[in-house]
Each structure stands twice: as C-alpha cells, then as structure tokens.
Specification:
The complex is a heterotrimer.
Chain A (H helix, E strand, L loop, with lengths): L7 E12 L2 E12 L3 E6 L5 H8 L7 E6 L2 E2 L4 H7 E4 L11 H11 L4 H15 L14 H12 L6 E5 L7 H16 L3 E6 L10 E6 L2 E6 L1 H8 L4 H9 L8
Chain B lengths: L2 H15 L1 H21 L7 E6 L5 H12 L3 E7 L5 H7 L4 E5 L3 H6 L4 E8 L3 H26 L3 E9 L6 H32 L1 H7 L4 H31 L7 H24 L4 H19 L11 H7 L3 H15 L3 H30 L1
Parallel strand pairs in B: 1-2, 1-3
Antiparallel strand pairs in B: 3-4
Helix pairs in contact in B: 1-9, 2-7, 2-9, 3-6, 7-9, 7-10, 7-11, 7-13, 9-10, 10-11, 10-13, 10-14, 13-14
Chain C lengths: L1 H16 L1 H18 L10 E7 L4 H12 L3 E6 L3 H10 L4 E5 L3 H8 L1 E9 L4 H21 L3 H8 L12 E8 L6 H32 L1 H6 L5 H31 L7 H25 L3 H17 L12 H7 L3 H15 L7 H21 L6
C-alpha cells in the first residue's frame, strides 16, 4: 500500500504504549507537516523517548495508530526505516572508530554508492569544518563536535524525516545555537525534523511544539499560539504550569 | 545504616535481581554433579570387539566365549580373517580386535607359543590403553586356566581399590567439582562484577564515597563468599544424596577448607579485574587464568602424576590442585588436618600473597 | 551483500582496536593448547610403590626386583609392617602397596600357586585400573619365569618335586590401530583446540551483542533498514574468520610441535570447520538474544559450553556413558566435530566415512542459525 502523497510527514492518533500496568504513552494525537521543525517537549520520564521509539519502529505500540512517511507503524516499520534518520540519546557514533569509518559504515548500510558517500561526506565535513578530522577517532572529539557530526551522519542518506532525541544534552550554549542552525538548514531542504528536548528555551526555535506530561499531550501548537492561549511569557512558564497539577507523578 | 552495610545490601540486591545469572550460578553446579555422576565415566564397557579366528576349535571358541561373557566387551563380529578390519575400524564399527594366529589350536596343543594379537583403536589412546588392558586381562584369565590344567605356575593377585572400592567415577570427580564450582563463583563473578562497575562508571562513585578501598573490595565480594558457600553445600548434599559419594572425614573441616579456597579464588579474581576495566577482557582473563587450569591442571580429571614434569611444576601454583587433594582427603580417605596440614598451609600462603597483591593493585589503579 | 561486509569490517576495526581482547583471543587458545595438550592423559609412569615383604625368600625378592625393574613402578619404601604401608597410603605418598604374605615361596613350590595382595589408591581413577593391569602382567610374567626354577627351589627347601609337563603358552601381543605410538597428544590436541576455539568464539559472539544491548548501540542499528539476517551475518563474519584462522593455526602448531598426523585431507577438515563454526557461533548468537547484560551472556554461554564440552567425548569417552546420555550427546555439535577431526587427522577418514556426523553438523548449524535470526527482533514487542 503506497503512502498517500500528502503534506503530512508524521501522524499519530490515540497512540498508546503500556508496560504492564504503567502507561508510558497515553493516547496521544498529533501530526507533523513535511519540512516542519517539530519540538516534542516534556520533562524526563514524560514518555518522549518511548514515543520516538514507537515512531521509529523500535517499539510496537499497544494501541492507536500512527503513520510515518506515509507508512503504517504496525505493518511497515521496515519501510519507514529507509526514509528516516535517528539520533539517539544514549549513543550516536562508535567512539573507537574514526569519523571516516563511521560515515562509511552508515553509508554502506543505507546502500549509498561510494561516490555518493564520498561527495556527501566531503560537503558535510566542510560545512562542519571537520575536514581534518576524517582520520580522528570519535572519542577524541569534544562532545559538541560529536553531536553535530552525529546529526549530519543521520542525514547522510537524505531521509525525509529525522528524529532527534535530546540532541543538545550536555552541550554548551554556543554549540547549541550552531546545532539549531544545522536543523534549520535541514528543514530548509524539506527534511522534517522531529526533536525532543527538555530545554524549554529551544521550544522557541520550533515551528510547532507539543508538551507531554505523564504520557499525555497537554499542549499542541505554535509557540506563539500557546503562549497567548495560556497567558504566559515563555514556554518555560507554560511547562511549569502544566506540570504542576500532576506534580509528584512526573519523575 | 553505615556506608559499608549499604554497600553489602546493594550487592545483594544486584545479585538477587539478576535472575539469569543467579539461575546459572545455582543451577549449574547441580546440573554438573548430575553430569559428572552419570555421564562422565572413565569406566569402559561394551567395547565393540571383533574376534578373528581362522581355525576355530574348542580352545579358541572357549577364549571367544570368555570375551562374550564379560560386560566389558560386546562381541559384534566373528571373522575368519583380518581383511575387513581396516574398514570396520575406520567407520567406528569396532573398537578392538582379537586376532588369533592361523594355527592357533595346533600350536597350543603342542605346547608351542600360540600368537594372539590384540589391536585397539588408539585414536583414543586413553581408552585405547584401558581397552587393551581389559582384553589382555581376559586372555590372562584364559591363560591361567590353561596353566592350571597343564600344571603351570600361577600367581594370583588379590586386589583392593582403596578409598574408592567401587571405583565409582562420581567419587573422584566430586571433590574436583567443588573446586570447579567455587572457582567459577569466586574468580569469575568477582572479576566481572568489579569491571562492570568500572565500565559503567559507578566505581568512581564508590571511590569518592567515605568507603576505604579495602571496604569496597570486601563489601562487593562478601556476597559471593556466601553464594560460594551455599553452592558447596548444595554440591556436597546432592552428591551424597544422589550418588552416595562418601564423606568419611569431617564436614566442618571440608567447609573450612572450602572457605579458604573461596578466599584464594576471590583474590585471584580481584587481581585479574584490577588489571583491566573492560568486562570482556576480565571475562576471558578469568577464564584462562582460573577456569582452564582448574579443569586441566588440578588433578580434577587427569592425574597430575601422569603429566610431564614441566606441567607438574606449574600445577603447583594452581590453587585448585591443593584443594582437590584436601577435598579428596577429607571425603574419600577420611583424614584430618594431621595429614592435610601441608596443603592447607600452602593455600593459606597463596591466599595471603594474592590478597596483598590484589589490594595493592586495586589501590594503585583506582585511587 | 555490501551491508554485511560493511558491518563485518566495522566489527573487525572494533576488535583490532581493542588490543587486550585481540591478544587474548589470539594467544589464549594457542598458548593454552601448547600447555594443556600435555596435561590430558591417564598414562601412568613411575608409580610409587610400597612393598611389605613378609616372606623374605628368593621368590619374594625376585618378584620385588621384577617390579622395580619394570619401568612402571618405583619402590619408594619397604618394610615388614602393614601399618607403615597404610600410613603412606593415607598420606598420599604411594599409589600401590604390594604385600607378599609369609608362605609365598612355600605355596609356590608346594601347590604351584600363590597369592599376593595389591592395594591401589583408587583416587587416581582410570589410572588405578591401569596400574592394576600392569601389576598383574608382571605377576603373570614372573610366574612363567620362575616355573622352571621351582624344581631347584624345591630341592633347596626339601619339598616334593613338582610334575613337569609341556605347558600351554600364549604369546600375547598388543598393537594399536592408528596412532601406533599411542601418543595421547595426537589425540588430545585436535580436541583441546576445538574446545578452546569454541569456548572463546562463542563467548565473544554472545558477549559482543550483549554489550551492544547494554550500551545502546544496538538501537542505532535497529533503526536502519538493515535486515536481521544481514545484521547477524555481519556480526558473525569476523568471529567466523577469527575462528577459522585459529583452527588452522592450531592445527599447524599441532603438526609442527606435537607431530600430530594429518592422514586425511586438510581441506576436508577446513570445510567441516567452516560449517562447525557457524553452528558454534550461532549458539553464541542465540544466547545473546536471550540475555540483557554481558555478565549474563558470559555465564549462560559458559554454562552451555561446559555441558557441551563435558559431553563431547573430549575428556571421557562417550562409549562409557549411559545410553540415555549418549543419545543426548548426539545433539552435541562439539562432539561430532571432535569425532570428525580425530577421524580425519588420526585415522585418515575420507568424506564417505564422516558423512553421518557431518550431516548432523549441517542440520544443527542451519537450525541454530535460523533460530537465532528468528529470535532476534529489531522491534521490541
């Protein structure tokens, strides 16, 4: 079944995931347009990572529906994987391999030709200013460079959607700014960017955001809309207000 | 709760919650006792035998019947000549062949030496020698019979197999098995546990806590001492219940020596893990440095006296060797410290040295 | 496919950069092989023997001399006291006590038959039986030897002359088929090599993937379009190559250092090795799908491998095992591979003769591999 040609990159309806008696993702409904930068916000443990794992085909949902890049999450998860990129929270690149080796690995897995790998690697490294680092082991690079590199590698095979799970954790503010520049560049090329973060200030950088609290989406819309609707000055304030009624349950 | 008690509790929780490892650590010794008891036998029976008799007569048939009558052999072929033997050996259809000379009966009757050739498949030389000895024993029995009829001289041997009259394999292996089990738990588990903390970075947290390095080691390791102890009890109990392995000496002494050996192995495990922070390296290092020597050089399965002298020398620094002697002494011979003081002393010295080396190594590497 | 090669190459890089593991994986099997192949034997040499001679006659002294001169026994003590002998047995100094009772020579002369006592320390297991065998052989030879002289003895002790007759004699010779030198190392080297390579190979495979699970790097691969089969093949390939290399190097070492014969075709053996390794590594793989941590991987692998090794006929013959155990041992790939390698190396077996165990190996490898692939899921349910 081919995906319908649409301007929707990701759609989820009443998506739910239980672990025993614990509901990590609780009937969430949202969609993301093609080329959008969508911020998936929430505190730690709110269920963001679980939701991403469902959308990327790593975890099966308990109930509800979801489509990514036009494919059904239940039945076509392998097709989805060809069209997406992923940068996980725990790990991005193999530390004991060099930059070049990591690139060649992912290039090979995504079936890029050697030509393609070479070209894209060259332009990627040039953009990051890391041409000299091809032969350096990743563990020798500072964290900020590593994160930016990991992001670029996730885009190597030109996916239509890229999922980023807390990509700027532990990174200094300047690097964070640079990272977001990269995100904008990707979005400008019509790549949909689905990013989770617990830095509420990064919310302002997104086209639309959602805020998850205890597995449910409590807010969904553009940052401006939401600030007006809830009568707050920053998304940070909004988040605190949403989290307060259920304070103690989120951890 | 003091820091130390807290550490103890944490270790216990780790172990109890890791159900797979726990299952293996508890179930493995039990399974191994069964395996060793039932499966690992060095007694040979049902040897597939071919009897080659070119000129059968009363005496050759009598010899053949003797073979057929013993449990040790299973007469699978009676052949008129040795032509097909090659193929039968190669395919494993027979393991041994008794080949009589062409004029066997004739020569025997005339009092001339009659030739019997016993050929065994020695691609398994350990059992090859044993098979030969069994066959020759049968022939000797026949020979004696002949000699008695003919007025020849016979010297009989009244044999007693001391300390293991039934020659049950399980009796021999259980003491070694105890060493084996203890080694796994003490050396392997410790090595893995310590390096895992290093790998995940939680070791640093322990080090900056008020706990002293010695306390950290002891705290982490105490749980395994207890497990080791429990395992020994399980193994001994099972061996006695299921296979009636004797315990002629003092159980208390056995447990005491077991405790000593646990300490020895633990120190070895700690020493190994202090040299690396990778679980993988610790794992293989512990395997090579403790497991394999315990199996092969401790006298567990293969007797040390049979080994060439360089290996006999090396065996002396394998703690398991001394423990096997002690365990066998207590269980099979029923002797006490009066006979075992030498081996106990050696283990004590080894343990002290290892503990000192391990603590020093630990302190240097991490602190 | 290219994906498999790319992944395999990455694995190689990982291993090569982990110096310690690389050294271990290469050196340990080979070094241990050299050392341990010498250990695995039940042969007896220089059995320490204690003699309690209560007869003190020519006949008894003659017997003792025979034992001493046999090359298999070393007389470490003698006395007329059985208690002293018992002490030595308890202390573990002696393996056998030969007791010659008081009327030994007299019985021989009078009745042409006498009895001695052998007490063997049966702690030694199989060796004890062999000790007894050698001892009884000496007795038989001695009996034949002194038969003609008993007449002289009789004269000197004043007893009746025994009847003389042509006595039936048997000339027993033994020979070994294959392995004529009975060098136990020819037998053990292939076996130990297989054991070590299997242990380390399976261990590394299981631990490798368990580690990726622990660290979370597995997730990154699961998100790519790589298929289960490709992933597994890519993971297994480097260890498979390593295993093949070790087996070949080990065989070469065995040939050069121990003189292990290579009577059959080495290519046949290598071919079988290739299949066997798929089976062995497949087990490691399957184990990695059911564990979560490296520690578990190690223990479960070890557990399974121990069972396999003990029931492989390596240390103790399968023929000695009870029937039901033998049937279970049929399912053991290690057992079949050991049997095949011994058959090919020492017996010179050809393809025809190893067909049956080979078939079992092939089936086993296919089943294990399929199970492992099935078991591995890129998506958690």
């Amino acid at each position: 079944m081919t995906g319908k040609p649409s301007s929707v990159a990701i759609e989820a309806h009443e998506l739910t995931r239980n672990f025993g008696s614990f509901t990590a993702v609780d009937h969430i409904t949202f969609d993301v347009g093609v080329g959008e930068v969508f911020g998936f916000l929430g505190a730690n443990g709110a269920g963001k990572t679980t939701a991403i794992r469902i959308l990327t085909g790593l975890l099966a949902p308990t109930s509800g529906t979801a489509r990514v890049a036009g494919h059904d999450v239940y039945t076509e998860s392998e097709r989805i994987k060809r069209r997406i990129g992923y940068m996980s929270q725990k790990f991005s690149l193999y530390e004991d391999l060099t930059v070049g080796e990591n690139i060649r690995l992912y290039g090979g897995i995504y079936d890029l030709t050697r030509e393609q790998v070479r070209e894209r690697a060259a332009s990627m490294l040039a953009r990051l200013g890391l041409e000299q680092a091809v032969g350096t082991q990743v563990r020798a690079l500072p964290l900020g460079w590593r994160q930016k590199l990991a992001f670029s590698v996730a885009l190597l095979h030109a996916p239509s959607i890229v999922f980023l799970d807390e990509p700027t954790s532990g990174v200094d503010p300047i690097t964070r700014r640079q990272f977001w520049e990269l995100i904008y560049e990707a979005a400008a090329r019509d790549t949909t960017v689905f990013v989770t973060t617990h830095y509420m200030d990064e919310a302002e950088y997104c086209d639309r955001i959602s805020i998850m609290v205890s597995g449910r989406i409590e807010a969904l819309g553009t940052p401006a809309e939401l600030k007006e609707r809830f009568g707050v000055g920053t998304i940070d304030e909004l988040f605190v207000r949403l989290a307060r009624p259920t304070a103690g349950a989120t951890s | 709760m003091s820091a130390f008690t807290g550490l103890l509790r944490k270790e216990w929780l780790h172990i109890l919650r890791d159900r797979r490892t726990l299952f293996v650590v508890i179930f493995m010794p039990i399974l191994q006792v069964v395996l060793f008891g039932y499966a690992i036998r060095t007694d040979i029976s049902g040897i597939r035998l071919a009897f080659v008799d070119p000129s059968p007569d009363a005496s050759s048939i009598e010899l053949r019947n003797r073979f057929a009558a013993t449990d040790a052999f299973r007469l699978v072929r009676v052949l008129p000549n040795a032509g097909t033997l090659d193929r039968l050996f190669a395919s494993g259809a027979i393991q041994q062949a008794v080949i009589l000379d062409d004029d066997f009966a004739n020569r025997l009757a005339r009092g001339l030496p009659a030739r019997v050739l016993v050929v065994a498949d020695a691609s398994e030389p350990n059992s090859g020698s044993a098979m030969q000895s069994y066959a020759v024993a049968v022939i000797q029995g026949f020979q004696r019979e002949l000699a008695a009829r003919g007025g020849g001289v016979q010297i009989f041997a009244e044999s007693r197999m001391r300390f293991n009259p039934t020659q049950a394999s399980s009796n021999l292996f259980v003491p070694g098995l105890i060493a084996f089990v203890l080694t796994i738990i003490s050396a392997l588990m410790t090595a893995i546990s310590l390096t895992r903390e290093k790998e995940t970075g939680t070791m640093e947290i322990l080090l900056v806590s008020p706990l002293k390095p010695l306390e950290i080691i002891v705290g982490k390791v105490l749980a395994y001492v207890v497990i080791g102890f429990v395992s020994v009890l399980l193994v001994v109990a099972e061996a006695r219940l299921v296979f009636s392995v004797p315990l002629r000496g003092s159980l208390l002494l056995l447990l005491g020596e077991g405790l000593l050996y646990i300490l020895t192995s633990l120190s070895l495990g700690i020493l190994i893990s202090s040299r690396t922070s990778s679980q993988r390296v610790a794992m293989i290092g512990a395997l090579a440095g403790t497991m394999l020597p315990t199996i092969l050089l401790s006298g567990f399965i293969f007797p040390i006296e049979s080994m060439p002298w360089p290996l006999r020398l090396i065996a002396n620094i394998v703690p398991a060797k001394w423990f096997v002697i002690i365990a066998r002494g207590v269980m099979l011979k029923g002797v006490g410290l009066d006979y075992l003081w030498r081996e106990t002393l050696i283990l004590l010295v080894m343990t002290t040295l290892l503990v000192a080396a391990a603590t020093r190594s630990f302190r240097i590497r991490l602190a | 496919m290219r994906r498999i090669l790319v992944l395999a190459w990455t694995e190689v890089l990982h291993v090569v950069r982990d110096r310690a593991t690389l050294a271990q994986a290469l050196l340990i099997p080979l070094v241990q092989l050299l050392v341990l192949a010498n250990a695995a034997t039940f042969e007896i040499r220089d059995t320490p023997t204690y003699v309690v001679d209560q007869d003190h006659t020519n006949a008894s002294r003659g017997l003792v001399t025979r034992f001493a001169a046999s090359g298999n026994f070393t007389i470490v003590g003698a006395s007329p006291s059985p208690e002293a002998a018992n002490e030595r047995l308890l202390a573990g100094d002696v393996t056998m006590v030969l007791t010659i009772p008081r009327d030994f020579e007299r019985d021989l002369v009078r009745t042409r038959a006498a009895t001695v006592q052998l007490v063997v320390n049966a702690e030694k297991g199989m060796a004890a039986g062999i000790v007894q065998f050698y001892a009884s052989r000496i007795l038989v030879r001695y009996a034949e030897e002194i038969a003609p002289t008993l007449g002289t003895l009789a004269a000197s002790t004043g007893s009746d002359r025994p009847p003389q007759r042509g006595v039936a004699q048997l000339d027993v010779r033994t020979r070994a088929w294959f392995n004529p030198t009975l060098d136990y190392r020819h037998y053990m080297v292939p076996g130990i090599l297989v054991a070590l390579v299997t242990l380390i190979g399976t261990l590394l495979t299981a631990q490798n993937i368990a580690r990726e699970k622990e660290l979370g790097t597995l997730e990154q691969l699961n998100v790519t379009p790589i298929t289960r089969g490709q992933f597994i093949a890519g993971k297994l390939l480097p260890f498979w190559v390593l295993g093949m290399f070790e087996l070949s190097a080990g065989l070469l070492l065995g040939r050069v250092v121990f003189g292990v014969p290579v009577l059959g075709s080495p290519f046949l053996l290598l071919g079988v090795s290739a299949i066997y390794l798929v089976a062995a590594l497949g087990i490691g793989l399957w184990i990695s799908t059911i564990v979560e941590t490296q520690q578990q991987a190690m223990f479960v692998t070890f557990f399974v491998m121990m069972i396999y090794l003990l029931m492989s006929g390596l240390f103790t013959p399968i023929d000695s095992m009870p029937r039901w155990v033998q049937i279970v041992a049929e399912l053991n790939p290690v057992r079949h591979f050991v049997a095949i390698s011994r058959a090919v190396l020492v017996k010179g077996a050809t393809f025809r003769e190893i067909q049956q165990p080979l078939l079992i190996l092939v089936v086993f490898a296919a089943v294990v591999f399929t199970l492992a692939v099935r078991q591995y899921s890129k998506r958690t349910a």
